[in-house]
Amino acid sequence: MTTWTRVPIDPSKGWETCFGCGQSNPIGLKLKAKRDGKTARTEFTPDKSHQDWSGIVHGDILSTLLDEAMDYAAIFSGLTCVAARMQIKLKRPAYIDELLIITEAVTESARKTLEAKATISLKDSTIIAESTATMFILAPMPSEPSNKQEKPKNNAQK
Prior knowledge:
The protein contains one helix and eight strands, in the order E-E-E-E-H-E-E-E-E. By secondary structure, the chain is mostly beta strands.
């Protein structure tokens, strides 16, 4: 029998310092996603600290936005996952001070993995980057915390 460990988004467990979504990380992106039907949506406006050169957003920042977005898609599906494989297509440069809209969704799921996709676009729907990922499912995220406690092992001496 498989025993799952609940891995909720819990600030006491380090989520608040996550580079992507942590609200207490001084150098983090501080992303917040909102569910929109079967997809989720995140908005982010990069500043000069996110640039590569000449006002262009660093590609690794775009990759992080896509990775984090697909994590949100998994979380909104009730699962805790990590990317096992991720493919990214950069379509055009993104510039600092330009609002980026990130949409994400789970496209398929199986017993141990799920497939997710994410897109970064501008307000006018111009696509900046797209990504797909195969994600390894670590644990389901129950809607309510479990009140079950493990029975202590009886190590009493006679």
